[in-house]
Amino acid sequence: MSDTVFIQVVGIIASALVITAFSHRCDKRLKIIMLTGAMLFSCHFYFLGAYAAMVVNFINSFRIGLSIKFHNSNVVMACFILIYLAVGLLVYERPVDVLPIFSGCLGTFSMYKLSGIRLRLFLLVGSGPWLIYNTIFQSIGGIITELFIQATNTVTIFRLLKDKKVRTNDQDT
Question: Is 24 left (phi over 0), alpha (psi -120 to 50) or beta?
Fold first, then answer.
């Protein structure tokens, strides 16, 4: 197997994990699966030479893990945002490197301050810059991930809205 194929396979496996995560209604399950996908994406981007994305995904894995236990911690959230910004300055090589840093900061706010529908909406917004970045670096797994995140996350949001409506209607009767 050539290096290019291996690199893309790692990205596609990471993509499959992240896509699976977004289909879960349970926030904790979503975060655990995303953590694993982030670690694999970190390896994938290292192999592609996309170091800003590698570092962001590495930090993401810790951010996601800690958000399970410290969901509403402003201190932990602020620390991660500062880490993204500091590391972003260290690995910055070209303007496109700002995209994963921005998404990392947005995702941090989402993981620590939001849940349910709002969590998924903010993560949906954060997928746009990643799609651009992945396209530039020709990350097949990354492109697939962002397209499916947008589709799957939208469907899950509608499922959660439907569940909320059913619960509200049940309480009214």
Answer: beta
For residues 30 and 49, give the distance between their C-alpha atoms in angstroms, rounded to a whole number: 28
Which tens digits make up the pLDDT trace of 30-84?
888 989 999 999 999 999 999 999 999 999 898 888 878 887 889 999 999 999 9
- CA-to-CA separations, 13 to 92, 153, 169, 173, in angstroms, rounded: 27, 19, 40, 46
> What is the DSSP secondary structure assignment for residue 71, as one 8-state letter?
T
Instruction: Tell me the pLDDT of the chain averaged across its residues.
Output: 90
Helix (H) or strand (E) holding 46: helix 27-48
For residue 1, pLDDT over 70 is answered with no
Distances (CA, A) of 27 to 46, 88, 89, 114, 115: 28, 28, 31, 10, 7
For residue 173, the model assigns a pLDDT of 60
Residues 6 or more apart from 165 whose CB is under 8 A from it? none
Closest C-alpha among 8, 6, 1, 2 to residue 142: 8
